[in-house]
Amino acid sequence: MTPDPGSPEELARFATLQARTPELYRTLGRDARIPQTVVIVPSLSMDPRELAKITGFYHYEERMLVNLMLLRQPRTRIVYVTSHRLDPVVVDYYLSMLPGIPNSHARQRLVMLDCNDRSTQSLSQKILARPRLIRRIRHEIDDPDRAHLVCFNSTPWERSLAVQLDLPLHSVDPELSDLGTKSGCREVFRSAGVQLPFGFERLSTPQEIAEGLAEIKRRDPAARRAVVKLNEGFSGEGNALFYYEPTDGDLAEAELTQRLKDRLPTLKFEAPHESWPSFEAKFAEMQGVVEAFVEGEHKVSPSVQCRVNAVGEAQVISTHDQVLGGPSGQVFLGCTFPAVDAYRMPIQSSGAKVAQVLAERGVIGRFGIDYVSVEGPQGWEHYAIEVNLRKGGTTHPFLTLKFLTNGTYNLEDGLFYAPSGKPKYYFSTDTLQEDRYIGLSAQDLVDIAVFNDVHFHGPTERGVVFHLIGALSEFGKVGVVSIGDNPQQARFLYKQALQVLDQETGVRKNRTPHDGQ
After folding, report:
1. Do 172-190+296-388 and 8-171 fall under one CATH topology?
2. Is the pLDDT assigned to residue 490 strictly greater than 80?
3. CATH of domain 8-171
4. Model-level pTM?
């Protein structure tokens, strides 16, 4: 009998399943040829109102297709479930990149299933509403004792799904998800002893927002702006900027607070269609934070990607410089790997401290830590601003590099080395978008890439890999990972891909900042 969601029975069964994870990890780690089944459910289980701000968000389920490269392990079987049926051309595109494995051999070990449902409901909820699909998934698992579930992020829906599938979930326990909210991560940063912007968390009312803004202004009379963030945003779309007026610093405490409260409807939202009434309602529901805006003439946004493995070991696995856009530069557009020499090792060290705290609190799986860094007279200062307790925009490009080259990340210098000994670099974006691309099918893109030799070459370990291909025809949107032997080459290959798309679809009139220009 299936236990009720969130019931003590479900929690107990989930705990029993999770207890199997360490031994499964050790067993599979001993030999990559051991048979296993990986069930991949790339559900973006987030507030649908926030997801709706992302163009073609349901196509983001494709970002985890990079995990199909696990099929290079000859006895690994994958069951990949999506909201709607993926174009077979997209799946074949990934299978074609498997090093040393015939496409037909990999295809026999891959099962693609879907819900035929493009609604805003999360994929995990869709699966839970389809008991026949759950039975089909279970039928495709050869040995439940050597199988696990992988998701984009972990919520009570994924916990219920794990229990119904009788599989351990290789992700953070949903009971710990608060650690990845804007409020929870500020508390984690303090525990880790890393620097963070002055501010306040666990706020829910306009009065509390105004009081926080007033305290920021009193602490720093020169403050020009502050950030108001929803606890659960995606790619920076849940953020808003508040601008102080020159006379705000002259007011008494009560008067200042009231004036700032009255001006909350003037918040400048990162999401293009957000409004104060909508933002206020969501803030009351999910809470949020108010932070000082980190100012600086030379400012960058690096990130550190970490994981805690199934036996509780915290590891740094990459650093990146983020490419940000939006009205005030808070929306994630892409990234470069690795972060630059000037601060790569300090943020790696800071990220390791945060990862250790999260490991001590029981977190497992991959997560990213975002920073705002400013260069001053004494060097770089780094402010931790967010933990993405899930797979994110830096996860799939790094996995793409790792799977395609079979290289390793070196903690001593923060570089990634291919087996040849060469360091590898990449530039990646999820948001290459142009109206002229609308109508291009997956097959069109593959034809264009092959004809113009714009694809990844195994022998040279460099080239371009496309993702989010399903969003191309409908939205004119596609993702790119360009891999090179140095940062300049990675950017060059990306620009080369743009030029090819220009030639095939017409000259782009307005290039956006993340186009590398």
Report:
1. no
2. yes
3. 3.40.50
4. 0.89
